[in-house]
Design goal:
Elements lengths: L5 E2 L21 H22 L8 H12 L14 E3 L2 E2 L6 H14 L11 H18 L6 H15 L12 H14 L3 H10 L3
Antiparallel strand pairs: 1-2, 2-3
Helix pairs in contact: 1-2, 1-5, 3-4, 4-5, 4-6, 4-7, 6-7
């Protein structure tokens, strides 16, 4: 699994592991990772089928993506954290401010009509907007775990809604993707993600 988060609580992972406590008491990293991947794959199928003209990509929807995807495995699925979290040199939004910061991000997104008007706008403009909000949610990092995969799912659904395929990240290595994610969080620089998203957007 990925490197362990630095948390100010000590009861989230099984002792001496980076495996979150789960409903099946799975303590094998490969097994838990495989199960998470299965659940996220199923979520793509379910939520893609549910997309329609009335879908609203608001905070409730974002939380529901996380909850519905992982509630069979984790008690905390869909819940925002209230403690501080960091990974490496990246420090995410302080736990005490997650709820308010999230509200502000989704208020901006609402003012942008949840990016539902980009079917006939330029790919460059759409990629820029996606990158901006992706960076905002990366820095927020509101969930206990599995933020990256749910955030990808969230923006993939917005892309599909606007007539694009799922965003293709296959042209970028995991190392480069992580590097650009760090640039977002530490330096508020979205240019790297903007290029990745632009290259991965296909009708």
């Amino acid at each position: 699994m990925a490197s362990k988060y630095q948390l100010n609580i000590n009861s989230f992972y099984y002792q001496n592991t980076n495996i979150p406590i789960n409903k099946f008491n799975i303590k094998d990293s490969n097994e838990i990772q495989d199960l998470e991947e299965t659940l996220i794959t199923e979520a793509y199928i379910v939520f893609t089928k549910k997309l329609n003209i009335d879908t609203v990509f608001d905070e409730k929807y974002y939380k529901q993506l996380h909850k519905k995807t992982f509630e069979s495995l984790y008690e905390w699925a869909g819940e925002y954290r209230d403690f501080n979290m960091a990974k490496g040199e990246s420090r995410f939004c302080q736990g005490a401010f997650v709820e308010n910061s999230s509200k502000k991000i989704f208020e901006k997104l609402e003012n942008d009509n949840y990016l539902k008007d980009y079917r006939n706008k330029s790919k460059e403009e759409f990629a820029s907007k996606l990158a901006y909000y992706k960076c905002e949610l990366n820095a927020l990092h509101p969930f206990y775990e599995l933020n990256g995969r749910i955030t990808r799912l969230f923006f993939d659904m917005i892309a599909v809604y606007n007539g694009y395929k799922l965003i293709d990240y296959s042209t970028v290595t995991p190392e480069v993707y992580i590097e650009k994610a760090i640039e977002c969080v530490q330096f508020a620089n979205q240019s790297g993600f903007e290029k990745i998203i632009f290259d991965g957007l296909n009708k």
